[in-house]
Amino acid sequence: MFATLFLSLVLGIWLIVGAFAYQAWKRRRRPARHRRWWVLAVSTGTVGYVHTLAYGMALTRPAEVCGQQTLDDDYPLTHVRVDVFPPRLACYWTNSATYGPSHPTAPGTWLLWCGAALLVAGTVAWALALSSRTPRWARAGTVLAPAAAATIWAMGVAPLMRLSAVDLDNECFRWQVAHLHSAPAGEIVHTERGFLPPAVDCVFTDGTASLISVETLGLSWCLTVFLICCAALRLLKAPMPLPGPKPR
Fold it and tell me: Which end of the chain has fewer surrounding CB within 10 Å, N or C?
Protein backbone atom coordinates (compact mmCIF):
# COMPACT_ATOMS: atom_id res chain seq x y z
CA MET A 1 0.00 0.00 0.00
CA PHE A 2 2.80 2.45 0.89
CA ALA A 3 4.64 1.56 -2.32
CA THR A 4 1.51 2.34 -4.34
CA LEU A 5 1.08 5.72 -2.64
CA PHE A 6 4.75 6.57 -3.11
CA LEU A 7 4.72 5.72 -6.81
CA SER A 8 1.52 7.72 -7.29
CA LEU A 9 3.15 10.70 -5.56
CA VAL A 10 6.25 10.42 -7.77
CA LEU A 11 4.01 10.20 -10.83
CA GLY A 12 2.16 13.37 -9.83
CA ILE A 13 5.40 15.31 -9.24
CA TRP A 14 6.80 14.07 -12.56
CA LEU A 15 3.71 15.26 -14.40
CA ILE A 16 3.85 18.71 -12.76
CA VAL A 17 7.53 19.18 -13.61
CA GLY A 18 6.90 17.98 -17.14
CA ALA A 19 4.02 20.44 -17.56
CA PHE A 20 6.25 23.40 -16.61
CA ALA A 21 9.00 22.18 -18.96
CA TYR A 22 6.49 21.83 -21.79
CA GLN A 23 5.13 25.33 -21.29
CA ALA A 24 8.65 26.79 -21.31
CA TRP A 25 9.50 24.92 -24.53
CA LYS A 26 6.23 25.96 -26.15
CA ARG A 27 6.72 29.69 -25.41
CA ARG A 28 10.35 29.70 -26.48
CA ARG A 29 10.21 27.66 -29.70
CA ARG A 30 6.57 28.17 -30.78
CA PRO A 31 6.41 24.77 -32.53
CA ALA A 32 3.69 23.63 -34.90
CA ARG A 33 0.59 21.95 -33.50
CA HIS A 34 1.53 18.44 -34.58
CA ARG A 35 5.00 18.80 -33.04
CA ARG A 36 3.46 19.86 -29.72
CA TRP A 37 1.17 16.85 -29.75
CA TRP A 38 4.05 14.51 -30.60
CA VAL A 39 6.08 15.81 -27.66
CA LEU A 40 3.10 15.38 -25.34
CA ALA A 41 2.50 11.88 -26.69
CA VAL A 42 6.08 10.71 -26.15
CA SER A 43 6.26 12.28 -22.68
CA THR A 44 2.91 10.93 -21.51
CA GLY A 45 3.56 7.45 -22.88
CA THR A 46 7.02 7.31 -21.31
CA VAL A 47 5.71 8.35 -17.90
CA GLY A 48 2.91 5.77 -18.10
CA TYR A 49 5.25 2.97 -19.14
CA VAL A 50 7.81 3.75 -16.45
CA HIS A 51 5.07 4.02 -13.81
CA THR A 52 3.69 0.62 -14.79
CA LEU A 53 7.02 -1.18 -14.85
CA ALA A 54 8.22 0.53 -11.67
CA TYR A 55 6.15 -1.96 -9.71
CA GLY A 56 8.38 -4.80 -10.83
CA MET A 57 5.53 -6.67 -10.54
CA ALA A 58 3.61 -6.82 -13.73
CA LEU A 59 6.40 -8.89 -15.24
CA THR A 60 8.28 -10.39 -12.29
CA ARG A 61 6.23 -10.79 -9.11
CA PRO A 62 2.58 -10.05 -9.86
CA ALA A 63 1.22 -12.30 -7.11
CA GLU A 64 3.11 -10.35 -4.43
CA VAL A 65 1.77 -7.03 -5.73
CA CYS A 66 -1.79 -8.30 -5.68
CA GLY A 67 -1.25 -9.93 -2.29
CA GLN A 68 -0.33 -6.58 -0.73
CA GLN A 69 -3.97 -5.53 -0.97
CA THR A 70 -5.32 -8.53 0.94
CA LEU A 71 -6.53 -7.67 4.45
CA ASP A 72 -6.86 -10.64 6.81
CA ASP A 73 -7.75 -12.90 3.85
CA ASP A 74 -11.29 -11.53 3.77
CA TYR A 75 -11.27 -11.92 0.00
CA PRO A 76 -8.46 -14.33 -0.97
CA LEU A 77 -6.65 -13.89 -4.24
CA THR A 78 -7.72 -16.43 -6.86
CA HIS A 79 -5.47 -15.66 -9.83
CA VAL A 80 -3.46 -12.93 -11.53
CA ARG A 81 -3.47 -11.81 -15.14
CA VAL A 82 -0.55 -9.99 -16.80
CA ASP A 83 -0.82 -8.25 -20.17
CA VAL A 84 2.47 -7.25 -21.76
CA PHE A 85 1.04 -4.73 -24.22
CA PRO A 86 -0.36 -2.51 -23.06
CA PRO A 87 1.34 -3.45 -19.75
CA ARG A 88 -1.37 -4.14 -17.22
CA LEU A 89 -1.75 -6.16 -14.05
CA ALA A 90 -5.15 -7.49 -12.97
CA CYS A 91 -5.80 -9.07 -9.56
CA TYR A 92 -8.80 -11.39 -9.30
CA TRP A 93 -10.31 -11.94 -5.86
CA THR A 94 -13.15 -14.13 -4.70
CA ASN A 95 -15.47 -11.11 -4.96
CA SER A 96 -14.26 -10.03 -8.43
CA ALA A 97 -17.30 -11.58 -10.06
CA THR A 98 -19.38 -8.90 -8.34
CA TYR A 99 -17.06 -5.89 -8.11
CA GLY A 100 -14.58 -6.65 -10.88
CA PRO A 101 -10.81 -7.21 -10.66
CA SER A 102 -8.33 -4.77 -9.15
CA HIS A 103 -5.84 -2.99 -11.44
CA PRO A 104 -2.84 -1.63 -9.49
CA THR A 105 -1.19 -0.41 -12.68
CA ALA A 106 -4.28 1.40 -14.01
CA PRO A 107 -2.79 4.97 -13.84
CA GLY A 108 0.16 4.00 -16.00
CA THR A 109 -2.05 2.16 -18.48
CA TRP A 110 -4.35 5.16 -18.88
CA LEU A 111 -1.35 7.42 -19.46
CA LEU A 112 -0.12 5.04 -22.14
CA TRP A 113 -3.45 5.20 -23.93
CA CYS A 114 -3.50 9.00 -23.64
CA GLY A 115 -0.02 9.11 -25.17
CA ALA A 116 -1.14 6.88 -28.04
CA ALA A 117 -4.18 9.09 -28.68
CA LEU A 118 -2.02 12.23 -28.75
CA LEU A 119 0.41 10.52 -31.13
CA VAL A 120 -2.41 9.68 -33.53
CA ALA A 121 -3.87 13.19 -33.25
CA GLY A 122 -0.49 14.75 -33.99
CA THR A 123 0.04 12.49 -36.99
CA VAL A 124 -3.41 13.40 -38.36
CA ALA A 125 -2.66 17.11 -37.89
CA TRP A 126 0.65 16.64 -39.72
CA ALA A 127 -1.07 14.79 -42.59
CA LEU A 128 -3.70 17.52 -42.93
CA ALA A 129 -1.06 20.26 -42.96
CA LEU A 130 0.86 18.72 -45.85
CA SER A 131 0.92 20.64 -49.10
CA SER A 132 -0.83 18.09 -51.28
CA ARG A 133 -3.54 17.97 -53.92
CA THR A 134 -5.11 14.83 -52.44
CA PRO A 135 -8.30 15.06 -50.32
CA ARG A 136 -7.82 15.87 -46.66
CA TRP A 137 -10.25 13.15 -45.56
CA ALA A 138 -8.18 10.52 -47.40
CA ARG A 139 -4.97 11.65 -45.70
CA ALA A 140 -6.65 11.53 -42.31
CA GLY A 141 -8.20 8.13 -43.01
CA THR A 142 -4.87 6.50 -43.81
CA VAL A 143 -3.79 7.34 -40.25
CA LEU A 144 -7.04 6.86 -38.32
CA ALA A 145 -8.01 3.50 -39.83
CA PRO A 146 -4.77 1.67 -38.82
CA ALA A 147 -4.89 3.36 -35.41
CA ALA A 148 -8.46 2.15 -34.84
CA ALA A 149 -7.52 -1.35 -35.98
CA ALA A 150 -4.54 -1.43 -33.60
CA THR A 151 -6.78 -0.32 -30.73
CA ILE A 152 -9.36 -3.01 -31.47
CA TRP A 153 -6.63 -5.63 -31.64
CA ALA A 154 -4.92 -4.52 -28.41
CA MET A 155 -8.16 -4.22 -26.44
CA GLY A 156 -10.32 -7.04 -27.77
CA VAL A 157 -8.31 -9.63 -29.70
CA ALA A 158 -4.79 -9.84 -28.25
CA PRO A 159 -5.88 -10.46 -24.61
CA LEU A 160 -7.90 -13.51 -25.71
CA MET A 161 -5.10 -14.75 -27.95
CA ARG A 162 -2.70 -14.82 -24.97
CA LEU A 163 -4.98 -16.76 -22.61
CA SER A 164 -4.18 -20.30 -21.60
CA ALA A 165 -6.53 -23.10 -22.60
CA VAL A 166 -8.13 -23.20 -19.14
CA ASP A 167 -8.66 -19.43 -18.99
CA LEU A 168 -10.10 -19.43 -22.49
CA ASP A 169 -12.56 -22.15 -21.48
CA ASN A 170 -13.61 -19.93 -18.58
CA GLU A 171 -14.13 -17.04 -20.99
CA CYS A 172 -16.33 -19.26 -23.13
CA PHE A 173 -18.36 -20.22 -20.06
CA ARG A 174 -18.79 -16.55 -19.08
CA TRP A 175 -19.87 -15.72 -22.63
CA GLN A 176 -22.38 -18.55 -22.54
CA VAL A 177 -23.87 -17.27 -19.29
CA ALA A 178 -24.02 -13.68 -20.57
CA HIS A 179 -25.77 -14.79 -23.78
CA LEU A 180 -27.98 -17.40 -22.18
CA HIS A 181 -30.90 -16.99 -24.59
CA SER A 182 -28.86 -16.96 -27.82
CA ALA A 183 -25.79 -19.06 -26.98
CA PRO A 184 -25.46 -22.81 -27.51
CA ALA A 185 -26.69 -24.68 -24.46
CA GLY A 186 -24.29 -27.63 -24.66
CA GLU A 187 -20.98 -28.19 -22.88
CA ILE A 188 -17.66 -26.81 -24.10
CA VAL A 189 -15.76 -29.30 -26.26
CA HIS A 190 -12.69 -27.23 -27.18
CA THR A 191 -11.61 -23.79 -28.37
CA GLU A 192 -10.09 -22.65 -31.64
CA ARG A 193 -7.86 -19.64 -32.33
CA GLY A 194 -6.61 -18.20 -35.59
CA PHE A 195 -4.75 -15.07 -36.70
CA LEU A 196 -5.68 -14.72 -40.38
CA PRO A 197 -8.53 -14.03 -40.26
CA PRO A 198 -8.58 -13.40 -36.48
CA ALA A 199 -10.83 -15.91 -34.73
CA VAL A 200 -11.45 -17.06 -31.17
CA ASP A 201 -14.21 -19.67 -31.26
CA CYS A 202 -15.87 -21.69 -28.54
CA VAL A 203 -16.97 -25.09 -29.81
CA PHE A 204 -19.91 -26.50 -27.86
CA THR A 205 -21.61 -29.86 -28.28
CA ASP A 206 -24.50 -28.21 -30.14
CA GLY A 207 -22.86 -25.28 -31.90
CA THR A 208 -19.97 -22.82 -32.25
CA ALA A 209 -19.77 -19.25 -30.98
CA SER A 210 -17.21 -16.53 -31.68
CA LEU A 211 -15.87 -14.39 -28.83
CA ILE A 212 -14.61 -11.66 -31.16
CA SER A 213 -17.36 -11.33 -33.76
CA VAL A 214 -17.75 -7.61 -33.06
CA GLU A 215 -13.99 -7.06 -33.10
CA THR A 216 -13.65 -8.94 -36.39
CA LEU A 217 -16.33 -6.75 -37.94
CA GLY A 218 -14.53 -3.65 -36.68
CA LEU A 219 -11.22 -4.81 -38.14
CA SER A 220 -12.94 -5.46 -41.48
CA TRP A 221 -14.37 -1.94 -41.51
CA CYS A 222 -10.96 -0.47 -40.68
CA LEU A 223 -9.37 -2.39 -43.54
CA THR A 224 -12.11 -1.24 -45.93
CA VAL A 225 -11.73 2.40 -44.93
CA PHE A 226 -7.95 2.19 -45.22
CA LEU A 227 -8.13 0.73 -48.74
CA ILE A 228 -10.65 3.37 -49.83
CA CYS A 229 -8.44 6.16 -48.49
CA CYS A 230 -5.36 4.70 -50.19
CA ALA A 231 -7.27 4.50 -53.47
CA ALA A 232 -8.41 8.09 -53.05
CA LEU A 233 -4.83 9.22 -52.48
CA ARG A 234 -3.89 7.47 -55.70
CA LEU A 235 -6.80 8.52 -57.92
CA LEU A 236 -8.39 11.69 -56.53
CA LYS A 237 -6.21 14.70 -56.96
CA ALA A 238 -7.34 18.29 -57.16
CA PRO A 239 -6.65 19.86 -60.56
CA MET A 240 -3.75 22.20 -60.80
CA PRO A 241 -4.77 25.84 -61.21
CA LEU A 242 -4.53 27.09 -64.77
CA PRO A 243 -1.80 29.63 -65.39
CA GLY A 244 -3.05 33.16 -65.77
CA PRO A 245 -2.32 35.40 -68.76
CA LYS A 246 1.23 36.54 -69.03
CA PRO A 247 1.72 40.20 -68.24
CA ARG A 248 2.59 42.39 -71.20
Answer: C
Cα distances from 227 to residues 180, 197, 238, in angstroms, run 38, 17, 19
Radius of gyration of the chain measured on its C-alpha atoms: 24
Which amino acid is located at 219 in the chain? L
Long-range contacts of residues 220-228, Cβ cutoff 8 Å, at least 24 apart? 222/145, 222/146, 222/148, 222/149, 222/152, 223/145, 223/149, 225/141, 225/144, 225/145, 226/141, 226/142, 226/145, 226/146, 226/149, 228/138, 228/141
Partners of 192 in the β-ladder = 201
Q: What is the pLDDT of residue 7?
A: 66
CA pair distance 11, 96, nearest whole angstrom: 27
> Which segments of 95-164 does DSSP mark as H helices, in order?
96-99, 106-129, 136-152, 158-161
Rounded Cα–Cα distance for residues 73 and 89 (Å): 20
For residue 212, report the phi and psi dihedrals to the nearest 5 degrees: -125, 35
Q: How far is CA 215 from the centre of its chain?
A: 13
**Segment 139-197, tens digit of pLDDT:** 899 999 999 999 998 888 888 888 778 778 888 887 777 776 666 777 777 888 888 78
Q: Give the full edge-to-edge strand order of the sheet including 199-204.
A: 188-194, 199-204, 207-210
